[in-house]
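Practice set, problem 2.
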Amino acid sequence: MALAGVSEGTCVVCYDACDSMYASRLWWMLRWAGHAQTVVLDGGQEAWEKSGGVLSTAPAVNRPTGTLAVSKPLVSTVDYEQVRENLDTGNLQIIDARNPERFRGENETIDPIGGHIPNAVNRFFKDNLQPDGTFKPAQALRREFVACMGNREPAKIVNQCGSGVTACHNLLAMEIAGLQGAALYPGSWSQWCNMPGSPVAC
């Protein structure tokens, strides 16, 4: 990011053409690196074009190297051992961002085993969006996520998906809803299902 011209004070606007899936991941990664000045363009490229924004096909302009340095993370993570321990303690609520079919272990085409982490609940990341591809209003997101949280505070929520990408979409939606402090399980289902002895629910 420094090579792209980003410094400590640079505001990075993240966008994509994939329901903000990759933009949310970049937003999270920058915050993980300690960079607070980052936002996601609501609705992505489609919203930009609908609002009259123009697109360029010219090569990116080289910018002077920035001074961005990795600092204390602004987001939290949990690892495999913590998620495994939670099977016994039940202190955390795991929220799985994959589509319902993969959550149920159906039509798994990416990982060697289908299913989900026991006691996880499913919140498909695309349910965060309105038909036009923008995020739902904060009040609606808050109501829907509170229903998934099992009376737990955000700090007791862990978001996961297949490989830690679309879970960031749920994390962003929780931020919009005013539910800050949830963690990401970066290894997600791809790690879980490849670890010997990991229990699987369907």
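Problem 2, part (b): a different protein.
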Amino acid sequence: MDVHSKEIRSYNMSQIKSRNTKPEDMVRTFLFSKGFRYRKNDKSLPGCPDIVFPKYKTVVLINGCFWHVHETCRYFVWPSSNIEFWKEKLGRNKQRDEENMASLTNMGWRVIVVWECELKKAVREERLEKLLFEINPDFQ
């Protein structure tokens, strides 16, 4: 049983952004400051990746731990109410992510996933530095 009415739940869900989120902006700003140029949310590619580097044939997906089911993460917790709805919804998200990543890989793209938890203050700098070399191993 959901704790909200259908109208309130619908409104709450409509307020959740899928593009230009704070984690995406953080990664984009960092990469731009290091001289990387990219495309945002390229609709011509499966899943409309968050950041696309045609030069390196690489895409970066910035995933929220909850919405993309980061099961090994301490920040991901299955909701305790309306359990069936959430298992189905988040399960579809995870399945769609896997299909999109497989399609991108089959098209010759390298896929890098950056999880929201990897952008927490304590580990952010290390993860972003690692990302530079994942995109371009010759980065200087």
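Answer key, part (b): The chain has a mean pLDDT of 91. Helices lie at 6-14, 22-33, 83-106, 121-135.
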